[in-house]
Write a structure and sequence with these properties.
Number of helices: 14
Strand order of the largest sheet: 6-5-4-7-10
Radius of gyration: 24 Å
Structural class: alpha/beta
Order of helices and strands: HEHHEEEEEHEEEHEHEEEHHHHHEHEHH
Strand content: 15-25%
Oligomer: single chain
Helix content: 40-55%
Shape: globular
Length: about 425
């Protein structure tokens, strides 16, 4: 091979590698301006401009007007016609499904109630049927789905898609959740713990954006945490990182479903919260407790505040080990607002070493009840294979090259103005 041919081959390989880098960066963040893309990838503005122009002509990306530093700029996102993704959250008492695109825009969603201790087979059947129904509503088909993300309230070995700790989610042990859904829907499936997905969503789209290190606490029927280190979710071996619901807080307490005694879940879980209210308030559900606490009922507010202080003490230990920049709180109990957050905040700040440079923030989840299902959607989108060449796009119709060139030139001008501003 001649030196000229070798050089041409190397340049071609470099262009393809740079193109893949741009696509994967947009895929991770959902959308960036060309100036932001250059900063995130380390590529020059001219290289990014050329790549965006090529991808725009191929129909792989779209651009849209946005604002940066008070100036107009062009946002680069992966095109909706590249595909849709599914986010599924299977909770203790509900099933939530969203369909979304690579810009993290939700195009359809629905929730269904689930019975107590629902079985894996029937719940996964319902989930599959609901996915197909939502696709039919928007006139799409399963072939357009690039992946499915699933969140469950238990530690998950993401390499197998199985619940990794017996007893935590009864009846779901030994079930290859990803394989079961893959057989039903024929699309790639990725399974993770719901708190991890809440952490992924809040660090990508919500209250932890801009922080490299954060902890997401899900306070619901059980309590769990998702840990983000250096911008990525830390799951630990077999997915048990952040399982604060099974930290012992009462050595003489009740036996937990995990088999240990006095775990945090036995003190602040749904059953523990409603029990002390039985004599004064009758039989309540967790939703009842949340609703009454929000309405100012002193008894339920006291129970929630006590739970906040106990959770805060455990999170403080995690905070000392991880040293996050912020703690984001979600789950049903977080709907009570400061009733839960202030006692939790006080407990954390009493126990965590004061950092004068960057004091630890404790904030509510921006995505609210949708944090976990949006995290499932983000997981599916980030795990998908995205085409980077025209011949990879298949049946996509390439855009008019002249129009694409004109649009990209306008994008460059707008981005440069934004960068200067």
């Amino acid at each position: 091979m001649s030196r000229r041919a070798a050089a041409a081959g190397s340049q071609s390989s470099l262009r393809e590698a740079n193109k893949a880098l741009v696509v994967s960066t947009v895929q991770r963040y959902g959308g960036l301006t060309q100036v932001e893309l250059a900063a995130a990838t380390g590529l020059s503005a001219a290289t990014v401009s050329t790549i965006v122009r090529d991808l725009l002509a191929a129909g792989v990306v779209d651009t849209a007007v946005t604002t940066r530093s008070g100036r107009r700029a062009q946002m680069v996102t992966l095109a909706r016609r590249v595909g849709l993704a599914v986010g599924l959250q299977i909770g203790n008492r509900h099933l939530r499904v969203v369909l979304g695109d690579f810009a993290h825009e939700v195009v359809a969603e629905q929730s269904l109630p689930l019975p107590h201790e629902h079985r894996s087979d029937t719940s996964l059947d319902r989930a599959a049927l609901l996915v197909v129904d939502l696709l039919e509503r928007i006139g799409s088909e399963l072939d357009e789905v690039v992946g499915i993300g699933v969140g469950v309230p238990a530690p998950v070995d993401t390499s197998t898609g199985m619940v990794s700790v017996p007893g935590v989610l009864r009846g779901w042990e030994g079930e290859h959740l990803a394989q079961v859904l893959d057989k039903r829907l024929g699309r790639p499936v990725h399974v993770d713990n719901d708190a991890n997905l809440g952490a992924l969503a809040e660090s990508t789209l919500g209250a932890a954006r801009g922080y490299q290190d954060a902890v997401y606490v899900r306070a619901s029927y059980g309590t769990g945490a998702g840990i983000v280190i250096n911008g990525r979710v830390h799951r630990g071996f077999a997915g048990t990182a952040g399982e604060i619901g099974h930290v012992q807080v009462d050595p003489q307490g009740h036996i937990c479903r995990c088999g240990s005694r006095g775990c945090l879940d036995t003190v602040v879980g749904a059953a523990a919260l409603v029990e002390p209210l039985r004599a004064s308030h009758g039989t309540l559900t967790l939703r009842d407790v949340v609703g009454r606490a929000r309405s100012g009922d002193p008894g339920t507010a006291q129970v929630v505040a006590d739970a906040g202080a106990t959770i805060g003490a455990v999170v403080a230990g995690l905070g000392m080990a991880v040293n996050p920049q912020c703690v984001v709180v979600g789950g049903e109990l977080a709907e009570t607002g400061e009733v839960l957050l202030q006692p939790m905040r006080d407990a954390i700040r009493r126990r965590v070493l004061l950092n004068q440079i960057a004091p630890l923030e404790v904030v509510p989840a921006e995505l609210g009840a949708r944090a976990e299902v949006m995290g499932a959607l983000v997981l599916a989108l980030q795990s998908a294979d995205v085409p980077v060449r025209v011949d990879d796009v298949g049946d996509l119709e390439p855009a008019d090259p002249t129009q694409a060139r004109d649009r990209s030139d306008r994008d460059d001008q707008e981005d440069r103005r934004a960068a200067v501003g």
